[in-house]
Amino acid sequence: MYYNHKPKFPDGFMWGASSAAWQVEGATLEGGRTQSVIDLNSQTKKPYTDNSIAADHYHRYKEDVNLMVECGFTSYRFSISWSRIIPNAERKLNPEGIAFYNNLINELIAHNITPIVTLYHYDMPCWVEEKYGGWLDRHIIDEFDYYCRVCFEQFGDRVKYWLSINEQNMQICYGDWLGVSKNCTDWFRQKWMINHIMNLCHAKAVIACHELVEDGKIGPVPGYVPIYPESCKPEDQIAAMNAEELTQKIWNDLYAYGEYSEFVKKYWKEHEIDPDIRPGDMELIAQAKIDFFALNCYRSNVAKEAKMGTQYQELGLNKSGRKGEFVYPNYPGEYALAPNPYVQTTDWDWEIDPVAMRYMLRYMNDHYHLPMMITENGYGAHESIAEDGHVHDPKRVDFLRDQIYQIGLAIEDGCDVIAYNLWSFTDLLSTGNGMAKRYGLVYVNTTDEEVLDLRRIPKDSFYWYSRLIKSNGQDWGKEM
Ligand code: BG6
Known about the structure:
Helix content: 25-40%
Oligomer: single chain
Strand order of the largest sheet: 5-4-3-2-1-14-13-7
Bound molecules: 6-O-phosphono-beta-D-glucopyranose
């Protein structure tokens, strides 16, 4: 990538990183917390370690915040663990859990780091599941509303940026992977009921935030994967549009416009799907006006025509970290995905495509005209400590430099981007690959096989990012 000028980032642009409670905290049964469904899910992903210790952030949050300060962070995006706040069905609050997040928030604010807080990042408490059998029961909407209101009441005096549900679209698209499809007998149809229930949860959170948090702002967190047509064949373009609808646009249209699109209504009709929309639901959804889009973007996709009558093939994620294991899907009559010969890939076959970042920001700006913040973007890799005691991650530096540069270009294009929070600050558990797939600016000394001393070692990318953010996006670390 060649740079011919330095784009300017706005004053007050927030620079930081992201995490999620279940992937970073550990201490899953400490401090009054009870288990969440994703804890159990993480235990089944052998040979990878589970999340009972993770990066041990629960015990080391002060050390972690000190490192954020050293790096120059002005924001930190993290999630609250529902079962740490409300550990059981009696809805009794857990003072130790509340104290943990108060301490973390206070520590951040004391160092001028703006907290950006996700309410739900895949971690439904086991008690909710036991009581209601999972996401299919509409009682969850009230439980979630209660939990969100507790968060706003406890932390809303200091936390002004809130995020509702992390990657609802990905949870619906990859139900098995993220544990949402548990207890479903007809996932193809029931996922749309669950999706509707999640939309109602999201809407309740938006409404409660505006009611309870003075100057509070809230937005959803879609996982965004730009989709390019494989060729200029018109049918490939339509396939790309289908893929876009079925993996992200259906969700974003609802968040922004408060109603289901004609595309999804037609899709339900064609497939005889009843999402169980009840009187009053759409009024509630329409009332929930979001303040911004929080966007997670790592990679891009290529779509091509999938003719009717061709063989159905489900998408297969690369779960091993051995290149070449991703299975490209074929959904007859809708779309197929294909490799992109113009980009490199990670060991998990994720496309390394910085231009996707600019594409996403332009697309979202054109369609929704709302401020945007990046809440995830990063490079997952196998890593270890070098003989000199450091962790050298030049590919991550290249990845981040190229991605952030494209954000700068998007800002020049007119996009209102207010923050960049990469994934992740310390190494933490990947959704399915434990510690084997590391994303951090800071190495955490532990492995899937053995719990080590968990000490923190800032990687080369930490120092590179620090220079960039302390100069508000001017010191790129090499000649431009
Ligand atoms: C995002 C999730 O989709 O991707 C994170 O919000 C996740 O929870 C991240 O960790 C990276 O994915 P993975 O599977 O590599 O951990």
